[in-house]
UniProtKB/TrEMBL annotation:
<keyword id="KW-0560">Oxidoreductase</keyword>
<dbReference type="Pfam" id="PF00106">
    <property type="entry name" value="adh_short"/>
</dbReference>
<dbReference type="InterPro" id="IPR002347">
    <property type="entry name" value="SDR_fam"/>
</dbReference>
<dbReference type="InterPro" id="IPR020904">
    <property type="entry name" value="Sc_DH/Rdtase_CS"/>
</dbReference>
<dbReference type="GO" id="GO:0016491">
    <property type="term" value="F:oxidoreductase activity"/>
</dbReference>
<dbReference type="InterPro" id="IPR036291">
    <property type="entry name" value="NAD(P)-bd_dom_sf"/>
</dbReference>
<protein>
    <submittedName>
        <fullName>SDR family NAD(P)-dependent oxidoreductase</fullName>
    </submittedName>
</protein>
<comment type="similarity">
    <text>Belongs to the short-chain dehydrogenases/reductases (SDR) family.</text>
</comment>
<dbReference type="InterPro" id="IPR051911">
    <property type="entry name" value="SDR_oxidoreductase"/>
</dbReference>
Length: 280
């Protein structure tokens, strides 16, 4: 069941490019108001200028809760309230775990996970005031499937997915929906200039790191999914009367998710004869 007749006042984090910019553009095409954020004020200024009367925005560091509090209040004031929030700010830190510095680990978790938590905490009072709403947390296939060489990105996105499911159940009695969105490979800068690799040179992983860099270079610009079609699919979740807790996006997504869940179920089942012998 759909609810496409609702006017939308949408806060989107991370609109500097890629999926965030695509979602904002598709939202404008629907006649929705969009308050966009980026760490860069110049990016925000361009976003507002290009978006016309439906656009507003502000610079925000999602890792700083005072910044997300401020931006949530600004968004509610600019749009007359908030009823849709899309937590899109994030990036991919790639490389075997031992190649990642402690600072890189901290930053990846701070942006991808803590940033999502901060934004949710900041916007929820405004959604309660509205009386309904929807939060779309952009996770990843790496929030469902574990990939070697993507340890921290996977950890951050699994956490976003788990947080989103639990939060959805907490907020359901209050008329607020939460969905974790797991996009597949989008033709954006994800595998190119937006990618960050581990800084530590660890001898046992040199061949693996070299192979990863080659794969990322080969995939950059050749990903199978159009970010604008993906954006439209994501926005359609907000049209649903009964949206899912989890939504996969992409031609490469569904078979991979189903296979991963089947493998996980089989893994748990293999230990069942031993693991359930614990009764009093």
């Amino acid at each position: 069941m759909m609810k496409t007749d609702l006017p939308r006042r949408c806060l989107i984090t991370g609109v500097s490019g890629g999926l965030g910019a695509a979602m904002a553009e598709r939202a404008f095409a629907r006649g929705w108001q969009v308050f966009g954020t980026s760490r860069s004020q110049s990016v925000v200024d361009k976003f507002v200028a290009d978006g016309g009367e439906l656009a507003s925005g502000g610079a925000c560091d999602v890792t700083d809760p005072t910044s997300t509090d401020r931006i949530a209040s600004q968004a509610a004031k600019a749009m007359g309230g908030i009823d849709l929030v899309i937590n899109n700010a994030g990036y991919c830190l790639a490389g075997p775990f031992e190649t990642l510095t402690p600072e890189q680990v901290q930053d990846e978790i701070s942006v991808n996970l803590i940033g999502t938590l901060n934004t949710c905490r900041s916007v929820l009072p405004h959604l309660h005031e509205t009386g309904f709403g929807h939060i779309l947390n952009i996770s990843s296939l790496s929030g469902v499937i574990s990939f070697p060489g993507m340890t921290l990105y996977t950890a951050s996105k699994f956490a976003v997915t788990g947080f989103s499911e639990a939060l959805a159940k907490e907020l359901a009695p209050h008329g607020i929906h939460v969905t974790a969105v797991a996009p597949g490979g989008l033709r954006t800068r994800f595998a190119g200039e937006s990618l960050v690799m581990g800084k530590r040179d660890v001898a046992p992983y040199r061949n693996m790191v070299s192979a990863m860099k080659e794969r990322f270079a080969a995939s950059d610009g050749n990903q199978p999914n159009d970010p604008y079609k993906a954006a439209e699919a994501i926005l359609s979740i907000a049209d649903m009367e009964e949206p899912p807790f989890n939504a996969a996006i992409g031609v490469d997504a569904f078979d991979r998710v189903e296979n991963a869940l089947e493998e996980r179920q089989a893994d748990f089942a293999s230990f069942r004869p031993y693991g359930e012998n614990t009764g009093i």
